[in-house]
Amino acid sequence: MTTAAAPPEETLSEQGAPGAAPPPWWLRALRWTAEANVAVVSFCAIVFGLFVGAILIVVTTPATLTAWGQIGSAPGHSLSVIFSTLGNAFGALFTGSIFSPSAVGHAISTGQGWAAAFTPISETMVSATPLILAGTGVAIGFSTGVFNIGGQGQLIAGAIAATYVGFGVHLPLVPHLVLVVLAGAAGGAVAGFIPGILKARTGAHEVIVTIMLNYIFLNLLNYLLVTPPLQQPGQSNAISRTVPASARLPHLFGGGLRVNVGFLVALGVAAAAAWFMKRGTLGFEFKVIGANPSAGRTAGMDASKATILVLTISGALVGLAGMSTLSGTDFFLSSGYGGNNGFNAITVALLGRNRPLGVVLGSLLFAALSTGGRYLQANTNIPLDLTQVIQAVIVFLVATPALVREIFRLREAGAGKILLFTKGWGA
Amino acid sequence: MRARELVRLAKPRPNPSRWRKPAAALSVVAFAASVSVAAGQATSYAEASGVAHATKTGFLACEVTDTGGINDRSFNASAYQGLKVAAKAIPGLRYTFLSSTSTSDYVPNINDFIHEKCGIIVTVGFDMANATAAAAKAHPTQKFSIVDYTYTPKIKNVLALHYDTNQDAFLGGYLAAAMSKTGKVGTFGGQDIPTVTIYMDGWVAGVRYYDKVNHAHVVALGWTPAKHRNFASGSFAGKGLFTNDFTNQSLGKTDAQTLMAEGADIIFPVAGAVGLGAAAAVKQAGAGHWMEWVDTDGCVSAPQYCSIFITSVTKGIVASVAHAVVTAAKGTFQGGNYIGTLANGGVALSPFHTFASKIPVKVKSALNKIRAGIIAGKISLDPNSYPAS
């Protein structure tokens, strides 16, 4: 999907000897694909991640191991076992995350079963929703030089606030949902404001504060879950009340497909964030301060105000992610709420190079690997951990473009085309 | 409904995908091979494929783990062990599992297994109760079993498995009090939830019962049951020591050290793998400091610490899950609620292993009498029935 991105124009104008006519478009396109730019590096990282996954499947699946043992006596048979195992595995990854060709064929021929045919892609979008929201929030922080590692805490804070408004307020669907969404954002914003004000006023480093706040919110949730009014009445287990139908994000399609309005909200938020960072005055200030705080100060920008604002906005978006899972699919809280989405958000921000579009694509890829991995395990007994290894390899390579350049022998991209954006814990 | 669509899709398959069929066959090969490897047998491709053909249409038992994962050394692992036991009892029975990495995975995981036409789907923990109930109502013919939960009212296609672990914990508490030299014993929990505190309640009741019948003054640290409680609603409120974590062993180490610093010489952690940290601390503290393990027989699940385990307060997840799977496979499955007790063997004190010769005969016979008394309902399990020392 990343290769589909248009090549940056500036790269091309630098090609060719001075004075000579610019090379034809196809040659430029060809050169572009051999260059270590964002799209090509990401694509190579994905290919390499899947390659590592393939190797792991071959060396860990009992069937292929047996086949290896017989490679001397029956090489043809062994190879066919190995390749069919790989084919099945990657087929299952695809079938489980995008769509199943047989289900679609069945739907076309009988006119029924459309929902089943689209269930995998719907589940991928469901998993991607909180990742897009939280990833965008974290990315705004990163591109301003603020390292918000508190995604998990902000996500939980948003979910807690949304749950309270969900079961505590009685309104018709639309106003109730709007309130729930706002509550989610507000909860996350509060969780983001705390490290912001601490950094601005006392200089406390946001990395430390946000990490510690993760524990505080996790334990706050554990406490609230066994305390009325959040705890489900008549239950002594750590489980919250269930939010009513008016606080649930409506499904986009019928047929039991779980993809809901939350996905559109996530795309909208990502688009707004892209606009904000590119065209907004405040976004510009954020970026300047992130790139060079002293330059920002010299230009009359208020760095501490920006820090507070960035962390608050970042927290609000992550809080929306907490709301999206609650109102979209779960409808109640329990102590494992949110899984690792707060931390995975950091990963997808990294994968998306802190750009909202990149975050959306990275989240979809991540979500597809997760849902596909689940199907892979149910269908072929290859453990879910395999897809987590693939995810890790991809992120690792995206974060180290120089390594990808070496592995795939890519040419260096023009200056500024690709950079390491993790500049360290800049103060 | 998506569910119905899935079933409809699953039935007629005029145009099966290229992946699907070989994938199913292969998973069986992989499964068969892994089973043979697990059993320590040499496996050849021909053998594996033979099994595959034989079991292609066999009964499939499936487990959805909670976020603890399949290797939690606790109820997820025990439930999976139950599937394995069932597979030994019924030739050709296949089993598999899906891990949940977050609570949001429960619904899709269950749906994936419904799609895979599992004969029974075993879910684990109260966390999954809502998801299981919803799926069971949407698929009335699909059989389910859930570990550590009861439904009121009962659901006819779900066998809910619940365990009165305060019964064997009572025995464990009595034994700890009898074995203590310092007159202090301690417990701590993984989280303040009923499945944990029911153990602590029974254990403390057992310590107090020991004091009452032997005119002793052994003190139980780490858990103070509430004065007014409602047994019927399963509420075991109280105040105590909790790690709020089931995986971080260093927390268990700290809590065990705290209890030992206060004078306790026998520790009873109710915190899954966190207990391993407590075991390390107890072993480090040296002779005279012992432990009781929880859920499973500690000498089997953590044999490196067997020398310090007086006994284990176990709950029969393996046997009851195996029972659910076997009945489902044989067509005699009955939904409803199952309560494991001392009487039906659903909960039990494990063998004493290295302590078999160290526990006085008098104590052993007392334990047998108490066991009979609990089964007959003559001994109260409520800690408030006995004065606290």
Quickly describe the structure.
The complex is a heterodimer of chains A (427) and B (389). Chain A has 427 residues and is mainly α. Chain A contains 18 helices and no strands.
Task: Write up what this structure looks like.
The complex is a heterodimer of chains A (427) and B (389). Chain A has 427 residues and is mostly helical. Chain A has a domain at 130-360. Helix content of chain A is 70%, strand content 0%. Chain A has 18 helices and no strands. In chain A, helix 6 (101-110) packs across helix 7 and helix 11 (261-279) runs antiparallel to helix 16. The longest helix of chain A has 30 residues, at 114-143. Chain A starts with 8 loop residues before the first helix and ends in a 19-residue tail after the last helix. Residues 1-17 and 415-427 of chain A have low confidence and may be disordered. Chain B has 389 residues and is α/β, with parallel strands linked by helices. Chain B folds into two domains: 2-164 and 319-330 and 332-340, Rossmann fold, CATH 3.40.50; 166-315 and 359-385, Rossmann fold (3-Layer(aba) Sandwich), CATH 3.40.50.2300. Helices cover 43% and strands 17% of the residues of chain B. Chain B has 13 helices and 14 strands. Chain B has a six-stranded parallel beta sheet, with helices on both faces. A six-stranded mixed beta sheet of chain B has the order 7-6-10-11-12-14, sandwiched between helices. In chain B, strand 3 (120-124), helix 6 (129-138) and strand 4 (143-147) form a beta-alpha-beta unit. In chain B, helix 7 (166-179) runs antiparallel to helix 13. The radius of gyration of chain B is 23 Å and the shape is globular. The termini of chain B are far apart.
